[in-house]
Amino acid sequence: MEMEQRYAALAEYLPPEVRPALADLFARRGGEVEELRFRVGCPVGVVLGGREISLCGPDGPIRADAPMLADLLRRAAHHSRYAVQNQLRRGFVTLPGGHRLGVCGTAVFAGGSLENLTDLQSMALRIARDCPGAAEAATNLLWSHPASALIAGRPGSGKTTVLRDLIRQVSDRFGQRVAVVDERGELAACLDGSPQLRVGRLTDVLSFCGKAEGIELLLRSMRPDWIALDEISAEEDLRTILRASYCGARFLATVHVLGPEDLRRRPLYRRLMEAGVFENLIYLEKDRSLRCERVDDAVS
Amino acid sequence: MQYLRFLGAAFVVLSSAWVGFASARRLRRAGRELDELRAALEQMESELRCAAPTYAALCQRLAESASGAVSGFFSALATDAAAPDFEPVGATRRAVERSGLCLPPASFLALEQLLDGFGRFDLAGQLRQLGLAREALTHQAGRLREQTEAKCRSYEILGLCAGAAVLILVV
Q: I need a surface site. Which of A147, A279, B7, B163 has the fewest CB within 10 A?
């Protein structure tokens, strides 16, 4: 039933050609569907459990073409390309329910900055999953030691999912104010001011704002106990986090690493650990289990 | 008998005059609605610059601010645009028919060109399209204003005269 509801919410954004086959797939294996892939001239792909298979109709694989991709984007933008312009500049559009449509095509630059994507070549529709309880082990660590926590793991390991649940738990269970810098609209996926994914009742969300600017803004305006952000990847992020840490806010953040040794090996992450802002480390293993430890223990 | 003839004569004159006055009223209404539409397009520009709402949300806001047939027009567009398999081509015509909006043909064409392709461009492009439509409607409104009073008087007098002529012929 949940899968049927989930599909029903998504169906209106999908091109009519793929709906019957996808409805059938969601009914059978909806819980495993991670992504839908559309590439011009190629069969529509479905990513199930990390593996991509072709979506088949009664006449064989359903092939994507340029009009299909244009239709998909038009639906995702609610027939208002101008309304999602800022998102398109970042290469994606967020749909109701927190699903994210990644867009790939020919970049159009104006004045030195990316203005538009045209001649669409491929799209990736990532299906959002709200997994309450995904950060249970991490929450216990934070409960015993309520300090800034860093979530590390490989791409696609579930860092954003764990971060989202941690935000919700800190907000609802700990009763503390969390401010989220939702730079890509993936954490809360707000639509018309309403979070499409559960992030807690004491959570304030700043969507589609850069991390550095967002942190400053939230500190000035929302007086958060915790600040949550996804994917620390730039020097500027580190500088702003350091500055903000002196204002008393604690952080929940994620970093991309291929292995725990990256935290010591890569210069940005090494400086991040040495700065001493993060005292709790949550590492996502390959099997998506969590290894929670204090940073001192991890480094030693 | 004389009374009936007098009644019949009055009926002929009045109904003919009514046609003339109704035509004049329609022309004046077209002018008013064109002015309201221009105001709505001005609001559309402000809304786009401020919040860039989706097409359906934008039409809904315009419907709430306007009145009469113009409000009905944007309300019909908003309902249409919110539907899952919305087809933009022909949306303007459908909305005009549902709302009873009274527009000169050239104004309708300008509106159709703007709204049937709405949302295809980025913000700068959309604002340019909007600017062109507003220019066209402003030009149309100016022409209509110049002609309205003279035309309305002509319709009214024509109606009365036609009624009188028929009466004379019949009597």
A: B7
